[in-house]
Model the fold of this input.
Amino acid sequence: MQRTKPVFPWLTAELRDSWLETRTAKTLEFSVPDWTGHDAGQHVDIKLTAEDGYTAQRSYSVASASTPGSLQLTVETVSEGEVSPYLVETMVPGDQLQLRGPLGGWFRWTEDLTEPVLLVGGGSGIVPLMAMLRQRVRSTVEVPFHLVYMARTPDHIFYTNELHTIAESRKDVTIDRLYSRSGVPTDARPPGRLGLDDLPGPTDLGPARVYVCGPTGFVESTAGLLQTRGHEPHAIRTERFGPSGG
Ligand SMILES: Cc1cc2nc3c(=O)[nH]c(=O)nc-3n(C[C@H](O)[C@H](O)[C@H](O)COP(=O)(O)OP(=O)(O)OC[C@H]3O[C@@H](n4cnc5c(N)ncnc54)[C@H](O)[C@@H]3O)c2cc1C
Done:
């Protein structure tokens, strides 16, 4: 029997609040009265319509844990981009856009999954992984989570305070922040690209479900490293956000 893909209607979303995560990235909190919730890791399509009827559509991962009636997105400005600068720099509370979803059936984590989880994010690729971490922290399950988060510098880290609080308060959640360009003087690891030693192997965690997200080049090289480290290809789920990026 052939499966038909669900068709999601466009919903009206109104910006309720927004705050900077870094100099170039912002979290946007939308009120979406007809939103029924999502699985952590899923994304939405958003549609902007200009006065002359021209439309632009892009995909954004949901950053928040599932909440009927509202959701948060975190958007990094891509310079010369058509949509991201509008979302980060121009949109103000009360402005509306259209969105549809939740989309994506493969890159999802739900509370009924019992294996340990390894999350590997590069740059804005942290966003769907943060939704998984938030869902995990909010739930009563005790599945170990390990987040490896690669950013250019400490100033490029999203969700700084919340990650610090989770790392301090949850003994079954490990959070490694790594830097590609420049780090902090006390770091034992010098800044640089993600390497084999930065990734836990399956023996450190038990067989794990692995989620990797970020720019295309980061995701491809990380997936290769994870397999070299001994993770089974079928256990590795990936989401690519776009061109090579940083
Ligand atoms: C499933 C999915 C989920 C996503 N979730 C997020 C998210 O949570 N947060 C987020 O910030 N982005 C996310 N993205 C990326 C987002 O959809 C857009 O591609 C991004 O915001 C750029 O759109 P733009 O209109 O500003 O740039 P465009 O006008 O599309 O492109 C302008 C220039 O930038 C280049 N470019 C396009 N996208 C990227 C990119 N991602 N990195 C580097 N260069 C790029 C283009 O090649 C072009 O040269 C996601 C993408 C996918 C497919």
User: Anything to note?
Assistant: The two ends are 43 Å apart (CA to CA). The pocket of flavin-adenine dinucleotide is lined by residues 43, 58-61, 74-76, 78, 80-84, 124, 127, 215, 239, 241-243, 245 (CB under 6 Å). Helices lie at 84-90, 126-138, 160-169, 202-205, 216-228. The chain has two domains: 11-103, 117-241.
